[in-house]
Amino acid sequence: NQFTVKNTEGTEVLSINRDGIFAPRGKLVGSTISVDSAVQTPLVKSSAGSTLVLESLTRSLRLSGNRGVFIDSPAGGININSFQSIHIGSSHGKFAIKGSDVRLKNLPTANSSTVSSFNSPHQIFQVCVCETGKLFLVPSRSHCDVNTNLCK
Fold it and tell me: What is the pTM assigned to this prediction?
């Protein structure tokens, strides 16, 4: 019995058999493996109770699938964090956000002097959209002014 992982060129990058674990084109250190080429496999799975970590310390990490890429967390949350921008797009479809509580935090607010005149503990705003797609807030009784400095 043997388990073998090959790259897209068909070259063996990892094999496991009775004699041990071998990484002829990479290096195996403790419980991690470093591979200098691509890895193709139908399943990557952590052991029960362990966190699965896929990382690239010096380059990018790409997950792709011709029929889609699915990220599912039936018993927990999903966090996406980035040092730089996060881009989400669709070339032939829609982008939908679905949730019982959707929040857009830290949007800039226009007419801040009008906002402070409200004597309500819960201020209500409306979302405005610039021609560029940038979002900003105005007080609920105000009008969206796309000529604001927030759209520049």
Answer: 0.55
